[in-house]
Request: fold
Amino acid sequence: MSRRTEEQTRLPRRASTHRCSSLRTRAVLVLLCSLPAMSAFATGESERRPIDLDLYQRLLERYTRSVPDLVGTRVDYQGLRTSAEWKRLAQQVRAAKPSRLERAQRLAYWINAYNILTIDLILDHYPVDSIRDIGSFFSPVWKIPVATIEGRQVSLDDIEHEILRKMGEPRIHAAIVCASTSCPPLARSPFRSATLGEDLDRAMRSWLASPRKGVSIDRTRKVVTVSKIFDWFEADFEAKGGVLATIAAYLPAQEADWLRGPGRNAKLRYFDYDCSLNELK
Reply:
């Protein structure tokens, strides 16, 4: 099941006109020769940072809010609808060439792309009460093409299952957000390749800190209630020792010790999943 499925020298007055001409010619030649290198540098920078992450940061600060309710982060979709900067950001995602990026850059790109394209999909159909309202029984929202990237049409399902999950990083499940209440809270800063490990760890801690949609531990009954995401994608956490071992790494020491000791065989239960829109009203 899918949840969901970012930058004159003044010559002497008597100088020969030939000399002036020669200097000008040389200056032009130097400039012309430097253009390919300048272009290559700009292209290289564009490939390494296909999304303007500083722009993305500003937009997140302006159009999202941290809230104390179940959602964690709410999005001002109504405000974003009229933002020319948002349209520019979404276009950058679609114009990117992620296949030319190194692994950490590619992983960060696709996480940011998923979140940006999900928001963009909501904006295209706004107002809606839930992302699921966009699709239908025969054409669920997760299968709807949201972008053409490097000539390939992709849906949210494609990004999640065919790209991100295949990169073998289970923490993506704390990072990608399908605009729903029970999703992990949307990070209010971009995922950056240089700090990707820290960014993903922060996302895991933020998600699991919620006792209503992250994790809740009942020691008496030896029951651990977690997000339904851990049920849907249980196999993704096997390499980290399973769901409980994965969770333990991001909890306070006392809870982590219990999960690694007396609670290592605790029963898993799952929160109901609320797909209502994470909108700021």
Observations:
- The CA atoms of residues 222 and 263 lie 6 Å apart.
